[in-house]
Amino acid sequence: MTQGAVKTTGKRSRVVSAKKKAILSAALDTFSQFGFHGTRLEQIAELAGVSKTNLLYYFPSKEALYIAVLRQILDIWLAPLKAFR
């Protein structure tokens, strides 16, 4: 029984990760095209293939999603600098 729970948890973790990745990718595209004020969460949710409610489960506000996108971009930009440490 424990092994089944582990398999379910692992599968759920992959699903959560995939949804977050899809949402972040859609958010990056949409924010890039329309800016913060021109973007609606409904647009991002539709592009990511999730409901707005589901999007808000992972990111509680448009601001939180925007910050997550900015952090992702900064991580990519700063990765080469970490090699110099």
Provide the CATH topology. Arc Repressor Mutant, subunit A
* Low-pLDDT segments, ≥5 res: none
List SSEs in N-to-C order.
HHHH
Overall CATH architecture: Orthogonal Bundle
The 3D shape can be described as flat
* Overall tally of domains: 1
| Secondary structure tally: strands | 0
Give the proportion of residues in helices.
over 70%
Distance between the termini: 46 Å
Structure, explained:
The protein has a single domain (2-82), classed as Arc Repressor Mutant, subunit A, CATH 1.10.10. It is 86% helix and 0% strand. It is flat and about 40 Å long. It is an all-alpha fold. The longest helix has 37 residues, at 2-38. It contains 4 helices and no strands.
List the helices and strands and how they pair.
Blueprint: H1 2-38, H2 41-48, H3 52-58, H4 62-82
Protein name: TetR family transcriptional regulator
Keywords: DNA-binding
Organism: Escherichia coli
Short description:
The longest helix has 37 residues. Helices cover 86% and strands 0% of the residues. It contains four helices and no strands.
Annotation keywords:
single chain
